[in-house]
Write a structure and sequence with these properties.
Layout (H helix, E strand, L loop, with lengths): L6 H9 L7 H23 L7 H8 L11 H21 L3 H21 L9 H17 L6 H5 L1
Helix pairs in contact: 2-4, 2-6, 3-4, 4-5, 5-6
Length: 154
Amino acid sequence: MPQLINSALWRRLLMGGARVVPWPADLALTALRVFTGLALALAHGWGKIPPSEQWVHQSLGAGDNAMGLPFPWVFAWCAALAEFVGGLLLAAGLLGRPAAVLVTINMAVAAFGFHWLTRQDPFGGMEMALLFFFIALTFVFVGSGRFSVDRFLR
């Protein structure tokens, strides 16, 4: 039980721990993290804040090809904030693992809950969501890296 409240454990879970990675590899992961986070935030998340009524109805609500989720406005805000705020946090490397978890969940829902289940471009539409999914999943496991705000705070 003492391990559950150990602040060092929580810091390691949220911000990553010490790992030995050559600096060129860490630099490449940083470039991938920054580009992915900014692309997600600015190209996908920014345009969804605030969620438009048309997007909510056609994607999440009761539209012809929508997922039919209850409370579609709540899920629309969750998706928009996961993409925008999660992307910015991922780019900065601030709370990188929790941000990557949010992005991973959001992209899984986008890929499999919308594009695949509603048959909207079976792979063509899923491709971008799957790409963001797997990149974010990578950062769930490796953390933000040496060149991040998490590392500075840790």
